[in-house]
Amino acid sequence: MAGWELRHTRDGYADALLELGERDPRIVVLDADLAKSTQTEKFKLRFPERFVDCGVAEQNLMAAAAGLAATGKIVFASTFAIFATGRAYDQVRNTIAYSNLDVKICASHGGITVGEDGSSHQALEDIALMRAVPRMKVVVPADYYEAREAVKTVAYLEGPAYVRLGRPKAPVLFGDDYRFRFGKAHLMRSGKDVTVIACGYLVHKALEAAEELAGEGIEAEVLNLHTIKPLDRQGILESVSRTGRVVTCEEHTVIGGLGGAVAELLAEEMPLPMRMVGVRDSFGVSGEAEELVEHFGLSARHIAEAARALCDLAP
Amino acid sequence: MAGWELRHTRDGYADALLELGERDPRIVVLDADLAKSTQTEKFKLRFPERFVDCGVAEQNLMAAAAGLAATGKIVFASTFAIFATGRAYDQVRNTIAYSNLDVKICASHGGITVGEDGSSHQALEDIALMRAVPRMKVVVPADYYEAREAVKTVAYLEGPAYVRLGRPKAPVLFGDDYRFRFGKAHLMRSGKDVTVIACGYLVHKALEAAEELAGEGIEAEVLNLHTIKPLDRQGILESVSRTGRVVTCEEHTVIGGLGGAVAELLAEEMPLPMRMVGVRDSFGVSGEAEELVEHFGLSARHIAEAARALCDLAP
Amino acid sequence: MNPAGEPGRYAGMGTVYPETEGMVLRETEAEEIRQRLETISREIRKDVVRMIGLAGSGHPGGSLSCVEILACLYFYKMRHRPEEPGWPLRDRFVLSKGHAAPALYAALAWCGYFDRDELWSLRRLGSMLQGHPDRLRTPGVEISTGSLGQGLSAACGMAIGLRLDKLPCRVYALIGDGESQEGGIWEAAMLAAHQGLDNLTAILDNNGLQIDGQCCEVVDLGDLPAKWRSFGWEVQEVDGHDVLDICRALDRAEEASGPSMIIAHTVKGKGVSFMENNVDFHGKAPTREEMERALQELEGA
Amino acid sequence: MNPAGEPGRYAGMGTVYPETEGMVLRETEAEEIRQRLETISREIRKDVVRMIGLAGSGHPGGSLSCVEILACLYFYKMRHRPEEPGWPLRDRFVLSKGHAAPALYAALAWCGYFDRDELWSLRRLGSMLQGHPDRLRTPGVEISTGSLGQGLSAACGMAIGLRLDKLPCRVYALIGDGESQEGGIWEAAMLAAHQGLDNLTAILDNNGLQIDGQCCEVVDLGDLPAKWRSFGWEVQEVDGHDVLDICRALDRAEEASGPSMIIAHTVKGKGVSFMENNVDFHGKAPTREEMERALQELEGA
Ligand SMILES: Cc1ncc(C[n+]2csc(CCOP(=O)(O)OP(=O)(O)O)c2C)c(N)n1
Ligand SMILES: Cc1ncc(C[n+]2csc(CCOP(=O)(O)OP(=O)(O)O)c2C)c(N)n1
Ligand SMILES: [Mg+2]
Ligand SMILES: [Mg+2]
Question: Was domain B7-171 assigned CATH 3.40.50.450?
Answer without folding.
Answer: no
